[in-house]
Amino acid sequence: MRVEVKVPTVGESITEGLLAEWLQADGAVVRTDDPLFVLETDKVTMTINAEHAGRLAIAVPAGSPVKIGQTVGSLDTSARAGAAPAVPAAAPPAPSLPPAVPQTPGPALNPVAGVPSLREKLARPEAVEALAPAVRRLVEEHRLDPAAIRGTGRDGRVTKEDVVAFLASGVPAPAAPVPTAPETPAGAQVRRPLSPIRSRIAERMVLSQQTTATLTTFAECDCGAVMALRKAHKEAFLARHGVALGFMGFFVKAVADALRAFPDLNSWIEGAEIVENREVHIGIAVAAEQGLAVPVLRHADRLSLAQIESEILRLAARVREKKITLAELSGGTFSITNAGSYGALMGTPILNPPQSGILGTYAIQEKPVVREGQIVVRPVMILALSYDHRMVDGKTAGLFLKHVADFVGRADVSLLELDGRRET
Question: N or C: which end of the chain has fewer CB within 10 A?
Fold first, then answer.
């Protein structure tokens, strides 16, 4: 029995995509739920698994645009795992080409007899070097052939007046060479089409810049308390909750708390109205091979630190394994991006439409700061809040950043819930 392999429905708004890669060879015997191919759309990249076991016959090659519901291959369910693939028929030999006809060289193009080339003219010492310095300079400036100028000086020498008269006579001087752009060496450039997801990212970034009044405000955040907690309790946290204690969970907790205090940053403008979101769904930017994705932590304000860390790991793994769904990427009300994990010290994050705010976290640096009149070295991070200035005022942005920085700076062991009691 032969079963068609079709492009599945991945979301109501998605009608087409790109068959980016086949994960099984043509003729391979696959089992149910084995990964078959990678589908890229403008919103999500995901791995499509086999719904049946059988021998795969590929009908649409990798790199082809496809429609939702389109048949891209088939599975012969009568084949068993471990069976040898069918040997394809030998391809017909390529037609032989007729022997190349030797080309007879044509006659060489010789210069007109008696007419010296410009190089020859300029190379004559008796024509140029014998000129007076002022005359020579004028001849070279206009790239003239001294032999073409009638000399009226002693013994027929060319004078400055002779050159001026020659130029006034309208005899054209040789044209200056036209500069040409250097040719690009073969293989120095490669052109490839934008993938659907990269095209979508580009479209949304331009949309963000064109439809919002984006402004970025910065603040410093002392990460000493968080670093001390991680150093002292990371083993206990892992043993208690089964997940590693990272940095991002603290910032998600801080942002969720701040969004409750400053709801304008959890809202956006839609037409002539303000949409205020009563729930806090925070998107976490995840970099993957196929591009950037922003899966959403739903009800982030209700989650414990351990739940946040666990959910971040789960969603990031699904993005990188190309298993993330459109539902997991939708519905965010605010976003966080962490460029600090790549060594970035500061940036101006771009808003994720229609959201009005995004927080950028960056690399921690040891800096001298003043505490109680003393200069001390502290681990400091730059926080960058980009926001839609149509919706959010500078005062609100500054207070929001202060709230986040204070929350992180005052983090204590109660957040870790090591005794099983939930902090409220």
Answer: C
Cis amide prior to 107 (ω within 30 degrees): no
Helix boundaries (H) for 218-283: 224-241, 248-261
Is there a single domain that holds both residue 51 and residue 141? no
Q: Structural domain of residue 160, as residue ranges?
A: 126-168
Question: Which of these, 406, 89, 47, 24, lies nearest to 226 by C-alpha position?
Answer: 406
Active site (annotated) includes residue 33: no
Categorize the per-residue pLDDT at 79 as very low, low, confident or very high, splitting at 50, 70 and 90.
confident
Global pTM value: 0.66
Same domain, 160 and 238: no
Whether 264 sits among the annotated catalytic residues: the reply is: no
Q: 100, exposed or middle or buried, with CB in 10 Å at 0-12, 13-18, 19+?
A: exposed
Task: Specify if 101 maps to a domain.
Answer: no
Residue 112 has pLDDT above 50, yes or no: no
Tokens 């986040």 -> residue: 404
- The pLDDT score that the predictor gives to residue 406 is 98
Task: Give 412 or 197, the one with higher predicted confidence.
Answer: 412
Catalytically annotated residue among 33, 142, 393, 412: 393
